[in-house]
Recover the amino acids of this structure.
Protein backbone atom coordinates (compact mmCIF):
# COMPACT_ATOMS: atom_id res chain seq x y z
CA UNK A 1 0.00 0.00 0.00
CA UNK A 2 2.76 2.35 1.00
CA UNK A 3 4.48 1.55 -2.25
CA UNK A 4 1.39 2.38 -4.26
CA UNK A 5 1.01 5.73 -2.53
CA UNK A 6 4.65 6.45 -3.07
CA UNK A 7 4.50 5.69 -6.79
CA UNK A 8 1.27 7.64 -7.17
CA UNK A 9 2.85 10.57 -5.43
CA UNK A 10 5.97 10.41 -7.53
CA UNK A 11 3.90 10.14 -10.71
CA UNK A 12 1.86 13.12 -9.60
CA UNK A 13 4.98 15.06 -8.74
CA UNK A 14 6.68 14.26 -12.00
CA UNK A 15 3.48 15.18 -13.81
CA UNK A 16 3.36 18.58 -12.18
CA UNK A 17 7.02 19.26 -12.74
CA UNK A 18 6.68 18.17 -16.35
CA UNK A 19 3.78 20.57 -16.71
CA UNK A 20 5.71 23.42 -15.19
CA UNK A 21 8.24 23.20 -17.99
CA UNK A 22 6.72 24.17 -21.31
CA UNK A 23 3.36 24.78 -22.88
CA UNK A 24 2.80 25.61 -26.52
CA UNK A 25 -0.29 27.06 -28.08
CA UNK A 26 -1.04 27.42 -31.76
CA UNK A 27 -2.90 30.60 -32.62
CA UNK A 28 -4.26 30.44 -36.17
CA UNK A 29 -4.92 33.97 -37.32
CA UNK A 30 -5.56 36.05 -40.42
CA UNK A 31 -3.11 38.12 -42.41
CA UNK A 32 -2.68 41.60 -40.88
CA UNK A 33 -2.40 40.51 -37.23
CA UNK A 34 1.29 39.57 -37.37
CA UNK A 35 2.50 42.63 -35.49
CA UNK A 36 -0.37 42.57 -33.02
CA UNK A 37 0.07 38.99 -31.88
CA UNK A 38 3.84 39.24 -31.72
CA UNK A 39 3.37 41.90 -29.04
CA UNK A 40 0.44 40.16 -27.35
CA UNK A 41 2.26 36.82 -27.15
CA UNK A 42 5.29 38.35 -25.44
CA UNK A 43 3.14 40.13 -22.88
CA UNK A 44 1.02 37.03 -22.25
CA UNK A 45 4.05 34.76 -21.85
CA UNK A 46 5.54 37.12 -19.27
CA UNK A 47 2.27 37.32 -17.36
CA UNK A 48 1.69 33.55 -17.46
CA UNK A 49 5.21 32.85 -16.24
CA UNK A 50 4.68 35.16 -13.29
CA UNK A 51 1.34 33.60 -12.45
CA UNK A 52 2.06 29.88 -12.89
CA UNK A 53 5.79 29.50 -13.41
CA UNK A 54 5.13 27.86 -16.79
CA UNK A 55 6.79 28.96 -19.97
CA UNK A 56 4.20 29.38 -22.66
CA UNK A 57 5.17 29.67 -26.31
CA UNK A 58 2.47 30.82 -28.68
CA UNK A 59 3.12 29.75 -32.25
CA UNK A 60 1.43 31.74 -34.98
CA UNK A 61 0.04 30.80 -38.34
CA UNK A 62 -1.06 33.60 -40.66
CA UNK A 63 -2.97 33.44 -43.92
CA UNK A 64 -6.23 34.68 -45.39
CA UNK A 65 -9.07 34.21 -42.91
CA UNK A 66 -11.09 31.85 -45.10
CA UNK A 67 -8.05 29.72 -45.90
CA UNK A 68 -7.26 29.43 -42.18
CA UNK A 69 -10.79 28.40 -41.38
CA UNK A 70 -10.60 25.69 -44.01
CA UNK A 71 -7.19 24.57 -42.73
CA UNK A 72 -8.60 24.11 -39.21
CA UNK A 73 -11.58 22.18 -40.61
CA UNK A 74 -9.18 19.98 -42.55
CA UNK A 75 -7.13 19.28 -39.43
CA UNK A 76 -4.71 22.12 -38.65
CA UNK A 77 -4.16 21.71 -34.90
CA UNK A 78 -5.18 25.19 -33.75
CA UNK A 79 -5.72 25.80 -30.03
CA UNK A 80 -7.26 29.18 -30.69
CA UNK A 81 -8.56 30.79 -33.84
CA UNK A 82 -8.39 34.57 -34.19
CA UNK A 83 -9.96 35.28 -37.55
CA UNK A 84 -11.26 38.23 -39.54
CA UNK A 85 -14.96 37.50 -39.31
CA UNK A 86 -17.40 35.38 -37.34
CA UNK A 87 -18.57 33.39 -40.35
CA UNK A 88 -15.17 31.74 -40.68
CA UNK A 89 -15.35 30.44 -37.08
CA UNK A 90 -19.03 29.52 -37.54
CA UNK A 91 -17.89 27.31 -40.39
CA UNK A 92 -15.44 25.48 -38.09
CA UNK A 93 -18.31 24.92 -35.63
CA UNK A 94 -20.85 23.80 -38.20
CA UNK A 95 -18.68 21.79 -40.61
CA UNK A 96 -16.14 20.14 -38.32
CA UNK A 97 -17.96 20.48 -34.96
CA UNK A 98 -14.68 21.35 -33.23
CA UNK A 99 -16.38 23.90 -30.97
CA UNK A 100 -19.99 24.58 -29.92
CA UNK A 101 -22.21 26.65 -32.23
CA UNK A 102 -22.77 29.32 -29.56
CA UNK A 103 -19.03 30.03 -29.23
CA UNK A 104 -19.59 33.77 -29.62
CA UNK A 105 -21.42 33.91 -26.28
CA UNK A 106 -18.45 32.51 -24.35
CA UNK A 107 -16.45 35.72 -24.22
CA UNK A 108 -17.53 39.35 -23.75
CA UNK A 109 -18.62 41.54 -26.68
CA UNK A 110 -19.51 38.63 -28.96
CA UNK A 111 -15.98 37.25 -28.55
CA UNK A 112 -14.37 40.23 -30.27
CA UNK A 113 -11.84 41.85 -27.89
CA UNK A 114 -10.91 44.53 -30.43
CA UNK A 115 -12.58 45.99 -33.49
CA UNK A 116 -11.52 47.78 -36.61
CA UNK A 117 -13.13 49.50 -39.53
CA UNK A 118 -12.64 50.14 -43.22
CA UNK A 119 -10.93 53.37 -44.29
CA UNK A 120 -9.52 54.84 -47.50
CA UNK A 121 -5.78 55.10 -48.04
CA UNK A 122 -4.99 57.71 -50.72
CA UNK A 123 -1.78 59.12 -52.14
CA UNK A 124 -0.25 62.20 -50.51
CA UNK A 125 -2.19 65.38 -51.16
CA UNK A 126 -5.29 63.34 -52.06
CA UNK A 127 -5.09 64.23 -55.79
CA UNK A 128 -8.53 62.75 -56.52
CA UNK A 129 -10.07 64.72 -53.62
CA UNK A 130 -11.61 61.57 -52.18
CA UNK A 131 -13.77 62.42 -49.18
CA UNK A 132 -16.54 59.86 -49.07
CA UNK A 133 -17.88 56.69 -50.67
CA UNK A 134 -19.44 58.31 -53.81
CA UNK A 135 -16.01 59.68 -54.75
CA UNK A 136 -14.84 56.11 -55.35
CA UNK A 137 -16.87 55.88 -58.57
CA UNK A 138 -15.62 59.10 -60.15
CA UNK A 139 -14.86 58.44 -63.83
CA UNK A 140 -11.28 57.27 -64.26
CA UNK A 141 -10.47 56.65 -60.60
CA UNK A 142 -8.92 53.29 -59.67
CA UNK A 143 -9.69 51.55 -56.40
CA UNK A 144 -7.66 48.66 -54.99
CA UNK A 145 -9.37 46.07 -52.79
CA UNK A 146 -8.86 42.31 -52.57
CA UNK A 147 -11.32 39.66 -53.71
CA UNK A 148 -14.10 39.23 -51.09
CA UNK A 149 -14.24 35.57 -52.00
CA UNK A 150 -10.76 34.97 -50.67
CA UNK A 151 -10.15 37.85 -48.22
CA UNK A 152 -11.95 38.60 -44.97
CA UNK A 153 -10.96 42.27 -45.00
CA UNK A 154 -12.35 42.60 -48.51
CA UNK A 155 -15.68 41.28 -47.31
CA UNK A 156 -15.81 44.01 -44.70
CA UNK A 157 -14.91 46.59 -47.39
CA UNK A 158 -17.64 45.34 -49.69
CA UNK A 159 -20.20 45.40 -46.87
CA UNK A 160 -19.09 48.88 -45.77
CA UNK A 161 -19.70 50.20 -49.29
CA UNK A 162 -23.04 48.43 -49.45
CA UNK A 163 -24.14 49.72 -46.01
CA UNK A 164 -23.26 53.27 -47.02
CA UNK A 165 -25.35 53.08 -50.20
CA UNK A 166 -28.29 51.34 -48.59
CA UNK A 167 -28.48 53.68 -45.61
CA UNK A 168 -27.73 56.96 -47.43
CA UNK A 169 -30.63 59.39 -47.97
CA UNK A 170 -32.82 57.85 -50.69
CA UNK A 171 -30.87 54.61 -50.51
CA UNK A 172 -32.24 51.15 -51.05
CA UNK A 173 -31.02 47.61 -51.64
CA UNK A 174 -31.25 48.16 -55.43
CA UNK A 175 -29.25 51.39 -55.18
CA UNK A 176 -26.69 49.61 -53.02
CA UNK A 177 -26.30 46.82 -55.55
CA UNK A 178 -25.81 49.35 -58.32
CA UNK A 179 -23.28 51.34 -56.29
CA UNK A 180 -21.22 48.29 -55.37
CA UNK A 181 -21.28 47.06 -58.99
CA UNK A 182 -20.06 50.49 -60.10
CA UNK A 183 -17.36 50.45 -57.44
CA UNK A 184 -15.93 47.10 -58.55
CA UNK A 185 -15.77 48.36 -62.14
CA UNK A 186 -13.10 50.74 -60.82
CA UNK A 187 -11.02 47.90 -59.36
CA UNK A 188 -8.13 47.00 -61.71
CA UNK A 189 -6.61 44.24 -59.57
CA UNK A 190 -8.32 41.78 -57.23
CA UNK A 191 -5.63 40.44 -54.92
CA UNK A 192 -6.31 37.33 -52.88
CA UNK A 193 -5.54 38.91 -49.49
CA UNK A 194 -5.34 42.23 -47.65
CA UNK A 195 -1.54 42.22 -47.52
CA UNK A 196 -1.36 41.58 -51.25
CA UNK A 197 -3.65 44.53 -51.94
CA UNK A 198 -1.58 46.81 -49.73
CA UNK A 199 1.54 45.74 -51.65
CA UNK A 200 -0.16 46.36 -54.99
CA UNK A 201 -1.15 49.86 -53.88
CA UNK A 202 2.00 50.84 -51.98
CA UNK A 203 4.85 49.05 -53.81
CA UNK A 204 3.46 48.73 -57.34
CA UNK A 205 1.84 52.15 -57.41
CA UNK A 206 -1.45 50.75 -58.71
CA UNK A 207 -4.69 52.61 -57.97
CA UNK A 208 -5.70 55.92 -56.42
CA UNK A 209 -7.52 54.59 -53.36
CA UNK A 210 -6.93 51.50 -51.25
CA UNK A 211 -9.91 50.18 -49.31
CA UNK A 212 -8.19 48.94 -46.23
CA UNK A 213 -8.47 47.77 -42.66
CA UNK A 214 -7.86 50.78 -40.44
CA UNK A 215 -4.91 48.97 -38.82
CA UNK A 216 -3.41 48.03 -42.23
CA UNK A 217 -3.71 51.66 -43.37
CA UNK A 218 -1.93 52.96 -40.27
CA UNK A 219 0.79 50.36 -40.73
CA UNK A 220 1.32 51.30 -44.39
CA UNK A 221 1.49 54.93 -43.30
CA UNK A 222 4.04 54.21 -40.58
CA UNK A 223 6.17 52.09 -42.91
CA UNK A 224 6.27 54.75 -45.62
CA UNK A 225 7.45 57.35 -43.13
CA UNK A 226 4.21 59.28 -43.31
CA UNK A 227 4.85 61.40 -46.40
CA UNK A 228 3.54 59.18 -49.20
CA UNK A 229 -0.02 58.40 -48.23
CA UNK A 230 -2.81 59.72 -46.10
CA UNK A 231 -5.85 58.16 -44.50
CA UNK A 232 -9.32 59.43 -45.39
CA UNK A 233 -12.22 58.59 -43.10
CA UNK A 234 -15.52 58.38 -44.98
CA UNK A 235 -18.74 59.80 -43.47
CA UNK A 236 -19.56 56.32 -42.19
CA UNK A 237 -18.15 52.84 -42.35
CA UNK A 238 -18.65 49.40 -40.87
CA UNK A 239 -17.80 48.05 -37.44
CA UNK A 240 -15.46 45.22 -38.33
CA UNK A 241 -15.45 42.65 -35.55
CA UNK A 242 -12.64 40.07 -35.83
CA UNK A 243 -13.59 37.33 -33.37
CA UNK A 244 -11.49 34.95 -31.27
CA UNK A 245 -12.38 31.43 -30.15
CA UNK A 246 -10.92 28.43 -28.44
CA UNK A 247 -11.09 25.21 -30.50
CA UNK A 248 -12.46 22.87 -27.83
CA UNK A 249 -11.69 19.50 -29.40
CA UNK A 250 -8.08 20.50 -30.05
CA UNK A 251 -7.34 22.00 -26.62
CA UNK A 252 -8.82 18.95 -24.92
CA UNK A 253 -6.57 16.70 -26.93
CA UNK A 254 -3.53 18.90 -26.23
CA UNK A 255 -4.58 19.43 -22.58
CA UNK A 256 -4.16 23.17 -23.08
CA UNK A 257 -7.67 24.33 -22.20
CA UNK A 258 -6.66 26.37 -19.14
CA UNK A 259 -3.89 28.28 -20.88
CA UNK A 260 -5.94 28.78 -24.07
CA UNK A 261 -8.80 30.21 -22.02
CA UNK A 262 -6.42 32.48 -20.14
CA UNK A 263 -4.85 33.60 -23.42
CA UNK A 264 -8.15 34.71 -24.89
CA UNK A 265 -9.26 36.38 -21.67
CA UNK A 266 -5.94 38.18 -21.57
CA UNK A 267 -6.95 39.97 -24.78
CA UNK A 268 -9.58 41.86 -22.75
CA UNK A 269 -7.23 43.05 -19.99
CA UNK A 270 -6.21 46.73 -19.90
CA UNK A 271 -2.61 45.70 -20.64
CA UNK A 272 -3.60 43.85 -23.83
CA UNK A 273 -6.13 46.50 -24.84
CA UNK A 274 -3.32 49.04 -24.67
CA UNK A 275 -1.19 46.84 -26.96
CA UNK A 276 -4.09 46.46 -29.39
CA UNK A 277 -4.49 50.24 -29.53
CA UNK A 278 -0.76 50.62 -30.13
CA UNK A 279 -1.02 48.20 -33.08
CA UNK A 280 -3.95 50.21 -34.46
CA UNK A 281 -6.84 47.97 -33.46
CA UNK A 282 -9.72 49.75 -31.73
CA UNK A 283 -9.81 48.48 -28.14
CA UNK A 284 -13.19 47.60 -26.61
CA UNK A 285 -12.21 49.33 -23.37
CA UNK A 286 -13.85 52.75 -23.74
CA UNK A 287 -11.36 54.63 -21.57
CA UNK A 288 -8.39 53.25 -23.50
CA UNK A 289 -10.17 53.97 -26.80
CA UNK A 290 -10.73 57.58 -25.65
CA UNK A 291 -7.09 57.94 -24.67
CA UNK A 292 -6.17 57.09 -28.29
CA UNK A 293 -8.90 59.22 -29.91
CA UNK A 294 -6.43 61.06 -32.16
CA UNK A 295 -5.65 57.75 -33.83
CA UNK A 296 -9.21 56.44 -33.91
CA UNK A 297 -11.57 59.22 -35.05
CA UNK A 298 -15.18 58.82 -34.00
CA UNK A 299 -17.38 58.03 -37.00
CA UNK A 300 -20.75 56.30 -37.33
CA UNK A 301 -20.16 52.58 -37.81
CA UNK A 302 -22.88 50.22 -39.01
CA UNK A 303 -22.86 46.73 -37.59
CA UNK A 304 -23.29 43.58 -39.61
CA UNK A 305 -26.30 42.62 -37.48
CA UNK A 306 -28.10 45.93 -38.11
CA UNK A 307 -27.67 46.14 -41.86
CA UNK A 308 -27.21 42.55 -42.98
CA UNK A 309 -28.86 40.46 -40.26
CA UNK A 310 -25.66 38.74 -39.14
CA UNK A 311 -22.82 36.96 -40.91
CA UNK A 312 -24.59 33.79 -41.94
CA UNK A 313 -27.13 35.80 -43.90
CA UNK A 314 -24.59 38.26 -45.29
CA UNK A 315 -22.40 35.41 -46.48
CA UNK A 316 -25.29 33.63 -48.14
CA UNK A 317 -26.74 36.69 -49.89
CA UNK A 318 -23.49 38.34 -50.97
CA UNK A 319 -20.56 35.94 -51.14
CA UNK A 320 -21.97 32.48 -51.85
CA UNK A 321 -21.75 30.94 -55.31
CA UNK A 322 -24.00 33.01 -57.58
CA UNK A 323 -24.51 35.61 -54.81
CA UNK A 324 -24.46 39.40 -55.19
CA UNK A 325 -20.71 39.58 -55.68
CA UNK A 326 -20.76 36.99 -58.46
CA UNK A 327 -23.59 38.86 -60.15
CA UNK A 328 -21.41 41.96 -60.43
CA UNK A 329 -19.06 40.02 -62.67
CA UNK A 330 -21.75 38.37 -64.78
CA UNK A 331 -21.02 39.17 -68.41
CA UNK A 332 -23.20 41.86 -69.92
CA UNK A 333 -23.69 43.79 -66.68
CA UNK B 1 6.79 -4.45 -61.49
CA UNK B 2 4.82 -4.83 -58.26
CA UNK B 3 6.80 -2.05 -56.65
CA UNK B 4 6.35 0.26 -59.61
CA UNK B 5 2.63 -0.32 -59.56
CA UNK B 6 2.42 0.31 -55.81
CA UNK B 7 4.52 3.44 -56.08
CA UNK B 8 2.52 4.86 -59.00
CA UNK B 9 -0.73 4.07 -57.21
CA UNK B 10 0.25 5.72 -53.96
CA UNK B 11 1.76 8.82 -55.51
CA UNK B 12 -0.35 9.40 -58.62
CA UNK B 13 -3.36 7.18 -59.14
CA UNK B 14 -5.03 7.27 -55.73
CA UNK B 15 -5.00 11.09 -55.38
CA UNK B 16 -6.30 11.41 -58.94
CA UNK B 17 -9.00 8.82 -58.29
CA UNK B 18 -10.08 10.77 -55.19
CA UNK B 19 -10.32 13.88 -57.33
CA UNK B 20 -12.32 12.15 -60.03
CA UNK B 21 -14.85 10.63 -57.60
CA UNK B 22 -15.62 13.89 -55.84
CA UNK B 23 -17.53 16.08 -58.35
CA UNK B 24 -20.25 13.49 -59.10
CA UNK B 25 -21.60 13.60 -55.56
CA UNK B 26 -24.24 16.25 -56.39
CA UNK B 27 -25.10 14.60 -59.72
CA UNK B 28 -24.20 15.05 -63.37
CA UNK B 29 -26.51 18.00 -64.00
CA UNK B 30 -24.78 20.03 -61.30
CA UNK B 31 -21.39 19.01 -62.60
CA UNK B 32 -22.31 20.18 -66.09
CA UNK B 33 -23.78 23.46 -64.79
CA UNK B 34 -20.62 24.00 -62.76
CA UNK B 35 -18.18 23.59 -65.61
CA UNK B 36 -20.18 25.46 -68.24
CA UNK B 37 -20.65 28.61 -66.13
CA UNK B 38 -19.35 31.57 -68.18
CA UNK B 39 -16.80 32.43 -65.51
CA UNK B 40 -15.38 28.91 -65.45
CA UNK B 41 -15.22 28.80 -69.23
CA UNK B 42 -13.44 32.16 -69.30
CA UNK B 43 -10.92 30.92 -66.74
CA UNK B 44 -10.33 27.68 -68.63
CA UNK B 45 -9.87 29.59 -71.86
CA UNK B 46 -7.34 31.90 -70.22
CA UNK B 47 -5.43 29.09 -68.49
CA UNK B 48 -5.13 26.85 -71.54
CA UNK B 49 -4.73 29.73 -74.01
CA UNK B 50 -2.02 31.52 -72.06
CA UNK B 51 -0.24 28.21 -71.37
CA UNK B 52 -0.27 27.32 -75.08
CA UNK B 53 1.10 30.73 -76.10
CA UNK B 54 3.75 30.59 -73.38
CA UNK B 55 4.73 27.04 -74.38
CA UNK B 56 4.99 28.04 -78.06
CA UNK B 57 7.22 31.03 -77.21
CA UNK B 58 9.31 28.79 -74.97
CA UNK B 59 9.59 26.27 -77.80
CA UNK B 60 11.17 28.85 -80.10
CA UNK B 61 13.37 30.69 -77.64
CA UNK B 62 14.16 27.60 -75.57
CA UNK B 63 15.59 26.02 -78.73
CA UNK B 64 17.74 29.09 -79.37
CA UNK B 65 18.98 29.15 -75.76
CA UNK B 66 19.77 25.42 -75.82
CA UNK B 67 21.52 25.77 -79.20
CA UNK B 68 23.71 28.61 -78.01
CA UNK B 69 24.55 26.83 -74.76
CA UNK B 70 25.57 23.62 -76.57
CA UNK B 71 27.26 24.96 -79.70
CA UNK B 72 29.03 28.11 -78.59
CA UNK B 73 31.77 28.84 -76.11
CA UNK B 74 31.69 32.21 -74.44
CA UNK B 75 32.80 33.70 -71.12
CA UNK B 76 30.27 33.13 -68.32
CA UNK B 77 28.66 30.22 -70.14
CA UNK B 78 28.56 28.08 -66.99
CA UNK B 79 26.74 30.84 -65.14
CA UNK B 80 24.18 31.30 -67.91
CA UNK B 81 23.70 27.54 -67.99
CA UNK B 82 22.99 27.51 -64.26
CA UNK B 83 20.65 30.49 -64.58
CA UNK B 84 18.34 28.44 -66.80
CA UNK B 85 17.45 26.25 -63.82
CA UNK B 86 16.49 29.13 -61.55
CA UNK B 87 12.78 29.07 -62.44
CA UNK B 88 12.80 25.44 -61.21
CA UNK B 89 14.30 26.33 -57.87
CA UNK B 90 12.77 29.70 -57.10
CA UNK B 91 9.61 29.61 -54.98
CA UNK B 92 6.91 30.57 -57.44
CA UNK B 93 5.57 33.33 -55.19
CA UNK B 94 8.99 34.99 -55.25
CA UNK B 95 9.01 34.79 -59.04
CA UNK B 96 5.53 36.29 -59.17
CA UNK B 97 6.39 39.19 -56.90
CA UNK B 98 9.64 39.89 -58.78
CA UNK B 99 7.86 39.81 -62.14
CA UNK B 100 5.01 42.04 -61.00
CA UNK B 101 7.51 44.53 -59.53
CA UNK B 102 9.37 44.53 -62.84
CA UNK B 103 6.35 44.81 -65.14
CA UNK B 104 4.10 47.09 -63.03
CA UNK B 105 3.67 50.59 -64.44
CA UNK B 106 6.26 51.89 -61.95
CA UNK B 107 8.69 49.02 -62.64
CA UNK B 108 11.89 49.00 -64.71
CA UNK B 109 10.30 47.31 -67.70
CA UNK B 110 6.66 48.13 -67.10
CA UNK B 111 7.23 51.89 -67.15
CA UNK B 112 8.80 52.17 -70.64
CA UNK B 113 6.43 49.51 -72.02
CA UNK B 114 3.40 51.36 -70.73
CA UNK B 115 4.63 54.55 -72.41
CA UNK B 116 4.72 52.52 -75.61
CA UNK B 117 1.11 51.55 -74.96
CA UNK B 118 1.69 47.98 -73.77
CA UNK B 119 0.38 47.00 -70.36
CA UNK B 120 1.76 43.72 -69.02
CA UNK B 121 1.21 43.45 -65.28
CA UNK B 122 -2.40 42.91 -64.16
CA UNK B 123 -3.58 41.90 -67.64
CA UNK B 124 -3.76 38.48 -69.34
CA UNK B 125 -0.36 39.35 -70.89
CA UNK B 126 1.07 39.25 -67.37
CA UNK B 127 -0.15 35.68 -67.09
CA UNK B 128 1.73 34.76 -70.26
CA UNK B 129 4.93 36.42 -69.04
CA UNK B 130 4.85 34.47 -65.78
CA UNK B 131 4.15 31.21 -67.60
CA UNK B 132 7.04 31.79 -70.02
CA UNK B 133 9.31 32.31 -67.03
CA UNK B 134 8.40 29.08 -65.27
CA UNK B 135 8.31 27.00 -68.47
CA UNK B 136 11.66 27.89 -70.04
CA UNK B 137 13.87 25.34 -68.27
CA UNK B 138 11.66 22.44 -69.41
CA UNK B 139 12.40 23.15 -73.07
CA UNK B 140 16.09 23.95 -72.61
CA UNK B 141 16.85 21.00 -70.36
CA UNK B 142 15.12 18.42 -72.57
CA UNK B 143 16.84 19.73 -75.72
CA UNK B 144 20.38 20.08 -74.38
CA UNK B 145 21.41 16.39 -74.20
CA UNK B 146 19.96 15.67 -77.64
CA UNK B 147 21.73 18.70 -79.11
CA UNK B 148 25.05 17.60 -77.60
CA UNK B 149 24.66 14.17 -79.19
CA UNK B 150 23.79 15.64 -82.56
CA UNK B 151 26.82 15.09 -84.80
CA UNK B 152 27.86 17.84 -87.13
CA UNK B 153 28.57 15.46 -89.99
CA UNK B 154 25.16 15.68 -91.56
CA UNK B 155 25.15 19.48 -91.28
CA UNK B 156 28.54 19.61 -92.99
CA UNK B 157 27.35 17.18 -95.63
CA UNK B 158 24.30 19.36 -96.27
CA UNK B 159 26.56 22.40 -96.62
CA UNK B 160 28.87 20.67 -99.14
CA UNK B 161 25.82 19.64 -101.14
CA UNK B 162 24.99 23.34 -101.46
CA UNK B 163 22.22 23.74 -98.86
CA UNK B 164 21.77 27.20 -97.40
CA UNK B 165 21.93 27.55 -93.63
CA UNK B 166 18.18 27.84 -93.43
CA UNK B 167 17.74 24.73 -95.57
CA UNK B 168 20.13 22.83 -93.32
CA UNK B 169 18.18 23.91 -90.25
CA UNK B 170 14.80 23.21 -91.81
CA UNK B 171 15.64 19.85 -93.44
CA UNK B 172 18.43 18.39 -91.33
CA UNK B 173 18.42 19.74 -87.80
CA UNK B 174 14.75 20.37 -87.11
CA UNK B 175 13.51 16.87 -88.05
CA UNK B 176 16.04 15.33 -85.66
CA UNK B 177 15.10 17.65 -82.84
CA UNK B 178 11.33 17.74 -83.41
CA UNK B 179 10.33 14.87 -81.07
CA UNK B 180 12.42 16.26 -78.21
CA UNK B 181 11.25 19.79 -78.88
CA UNK B 182 7.66 18.58 -78.70
CA UNK B 183 8.31 16.80 -75.40
CA UNK B 184 9.91 19.87 -73.86
CA UNK B 185 7.15 22.15 -75.08
CA UNK B 186 4.49 19.76 -73.80
CA UNK B 187 6.13 19.69 -70.38
CA UNK B 188 6.30 23.47 -70.29
CA UNK B 189 2.63 23.57 -71.26
CA UNK B 190 1.57 21.07 -68.61
CA UNK B 191 3.49 22.91 -65.94
CA UNK B 192 1.96 26.24 -66.99
CA UNK B 193 -1.63 24.98 -66.86
CA UNK B 194 -1.32 24.13 -63.17
CA UNK B 195 0.78 27.11 -62.16
CA UNK B 196 -0.68 29.21 -59.33
CA UNK B 197 1.92 30.94 -57.15
CA UNK B 198 3.69 33.15 -59.66
CA UNK B 199 0.63 34.03 -61.76
CA UNK B 200 -1.50 35.25 -58.86
CA UNK B 201 0.78 38.21 -58.23
CA UNK B 202 0.90 39.51 -61.78
CA UNK B 203 -2.50 38.54 -63.22
CA UNK B 204 -4.85 41.08 -61.65
CA UNK B 205 -7.30 38.23 -61.00
CA UNK B 206 -10.39 39.94 -62.41
CA UNK B 207 -13.25 37.50 -63.02
CA UNK B 208 -13.86 36.93 -66.76
CA UNK B 209 -10.66 38.81 -67.65
CA UNK B 210 -7.54 37.67 -65.88
CA UNK B 211 -8.71 34.98 -63.47
CA UNK B 212 -6.85 31.70 -63.97
CA UNK B 213 -8.50 28.34 -63.34
CA UNK B 214 -6.39 27.34 -60.31
CA UNK B 215 -7.49 30.57 -58.57
CA UNK B 216 -11.10 29.74 -59.33
CA UNK B 217 -10.54 26.37 -57.65
CA UNK B 218 -9.17 28.13 -54.56
CA UNK B 219 -12.22 30.43 -54.54
CA UNK B 220 -14.54 27.42 -54.72
CA UNK B 221 -12.72 25.83 -51.79
CA UNK B 222 -13.10 29.06 -49.83
CA UNK B 223 -16.86 28.68 -50.30
CA UNK B 224 -16.53 25.10 -48.93
CA UNK B 225 -17.71 23.97 -52.37
CA UNK B 226 -15.43 20.94 -52.58
CA UNK B 227 -17.51 19.29 -55.32
CA UNK B 228 -17.38 22.44 -57.47
CA UNK B 229 -13.63 22.76 -57.00
CA UNK B 230 -13.15 19.10 -57.90
CA UNK B 231 -15.37 19.49 -60.97
CA UNK B 232 -13.10 22.21 -62.36
CA UNK B 233 -10.07 20.14 -61.36
CA UNK B 234 -11.39 17.16 -63.31
CA UNK B 235 -11.95 19.29 -66.41
CA UNK B 236 -8.39 20.60 -66.21
CA UNK B 237 -7.14 17.08 -65.75
CA UNK B 238 -9.12 15.76 -68.71
CA UNK B 239 -8.10 18.56 -71.08
CA UNK B 240 -4.44 18.28 -70.03
CA UNK B 241 -4.50 14.52 -70.46
CA UNK B 242 -6.05 14.69 -73.92
CA UNK B 243 -3.59 17.38 -74.95
CA UNK B 244 -0.53 15.54 -73.64
CA UNK B 245 -1.76 12.28 -75.16
CA UNK B 246 -2.19 13.97 -78.55
CA UNK B 247 1.29 15.47 -78.29
CA UNK B 248 2.76 12.08 -77.45
CA UNK B 249 1.02 10.56 -80.44
CA UNK B 250 2.29 13.38 -82.65
CA UNK B 251 5.77 12.86 -81.29
CA UNK B 252 5.60 9.13 -82.08
CA UNK B 253 4.44 9.99 -85.58
CA UNK B 254 7.28 12.44 -86.13
CA UNK B 255 9.86 9.93 -84.84
CA UNK B 256 8.44 7.19 -87.03
CA UNK B 257 8.63 9.35 -90.15
CA UNK B 258 12.29 10.00 -89.65
Amino acid sequence: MKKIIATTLSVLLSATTAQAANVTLLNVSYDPTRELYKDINNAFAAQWKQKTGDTVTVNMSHNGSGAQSRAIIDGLDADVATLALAYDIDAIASKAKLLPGDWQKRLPQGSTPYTSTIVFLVRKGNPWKVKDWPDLIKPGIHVVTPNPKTSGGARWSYLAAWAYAEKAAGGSKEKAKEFVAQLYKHVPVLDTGARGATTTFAQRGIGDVLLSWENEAHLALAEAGGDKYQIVYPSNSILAEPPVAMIDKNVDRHKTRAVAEAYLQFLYTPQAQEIEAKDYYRPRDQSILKAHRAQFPDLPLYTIDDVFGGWTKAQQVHFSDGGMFDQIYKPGQ
Amino acid sequence: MGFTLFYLSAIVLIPLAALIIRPWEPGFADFWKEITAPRVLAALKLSFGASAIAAAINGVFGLIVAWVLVRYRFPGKKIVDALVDLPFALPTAVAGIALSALYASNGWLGGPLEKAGIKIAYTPRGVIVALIFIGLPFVVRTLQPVLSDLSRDSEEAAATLGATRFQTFRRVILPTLAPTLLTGTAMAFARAVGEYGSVIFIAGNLPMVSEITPLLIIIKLQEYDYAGAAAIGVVMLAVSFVFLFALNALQAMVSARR
